[in-house]
Amino acid sequence: MKGIVLCSSIDRSGRRWRHAAWLGLATALAIGSVGSLAAGDPRREQAAPAAQEKTRMWMIIGGAQRFAVTLEDNPTARAFAQMLPLTLDMPDLNDNEKHVRLPRSLPTNAVRPGTIRTGDVMLYGSDTLVVFYKTFPSSYSYTRIGRVTRVHGLVEALGPGSQRIGFALD
Fold first, then answer.
1. Do 77 and 108 share a domain, yes or no?
2. What number of other Cβ atoms are within 10 A of residue 100's Cβ?
3. pLDDT tens profile 36-77
4. Neighbour tally for 154: CB within 10 Å
5. In a 3-state reduction of DSSP, which class is residue 148?
6. What's the pTM value of the predicted model, to 2 decimals?
């Protein structure tokens, strides 16, 4: 049978088991990308946590107050991160958000979150960055970019009126 590899192994009771696995293109690619990181290899244990870490950026309000933002693992957040560092004058809207049109469009995958949370950093349409500083229900659609890690003091920092906000990678 072409494309199938039969392997045998012995379980704890001493019985021999046969396993069949397809070695198609997907498996070959997976093996190629994993390389020699077999189970028990110490490099595998080192590589696993790094893959689970999320990218962090800083949001600097008024040049002084810094808030950590955990970026989503999606094309929109990656495209936004490529634009950094960036400083933007962001006017207030509806006493709950700061918004600004970005210099270029980003990829989108908009959904209706239902509830916007304090600290959400999202994209409205394909080119409007929005930082929310109050929780409220919404029927609008957004693409998530990230979320402020600790929102304590965010309402006071952003407050009413326009703010100059900087964004930079960690």
1. yes
2. 17
3. 444 444 443 444 344 445 789 999 998 889 999 999 999 999
4. 20
5. strand
6. 0.69
Do residue 44 and residue 88 come from a single domain?
Answer: no
Query: Is the domain of 69 the same as that of 122?
Result: yes
Judge if 117 and 143 occupy the same domain.
yes
- The distance in angstroms from the start CA to the end CA of the chain is 52
Domain count along the chain: 2
Look at residues 13, 33, 52 and tell me which one is the last residue of a structural domain: 52
In sequence order, what are the residues at sequence separation of 6 or more whose Cβ sits closer than 8 angstroms to the Cβ of residue 98? 90, 91, 92, 130, 131, 133, 158, 162, 163, 165
Q: Which residue has the tokens 């390389």?
A: 35
Return the beta strands (E) in the chain as ranges: 4-10, 16-22, 56-61, 65-71, 86-90, 92-93, 97-101, 115-116, 120-124, 128-132, 136-137, 143-148, 163-169
Domain range for 48 is: 4-52
Q: Which residue has the tokens 């029927």?
A: 139
- Cα-Cα-Cα-Cα dihedral sign, residues 34, 169, 71, 68: positive
